[in-house]
Amino acid sequence: xxxxxxRTYTQVWYCDNCNDGPISTALNPYCPSCGHQRCSYCLxxxxxxxxxxxx
Length: 55
Ligand SMILES: [Zn+2]
Ligand SMILES: [Zn+2]
What we know:
- By secondary structure, this protein is mainly beta.
- The protein has strands at 7-14, 23-24, 43-50.
- The site of one zinc ion (ZN) has 7 residues, from loops.
């Protein structure tokens, strides 16, 4: 595997109850809008985020 640390992927999910999202799977196991717990029907996606470290 190429060790490119410039790109970071994070996993998010979309609530199948109220269609809210994207919600971080790491930070929010429950939907912040309706309180629905992430289940197998909720859509889970991996999104690419930019890491802007200018130091
Ligand atoms: Zn919800
Ligand atoms: Zn669900």
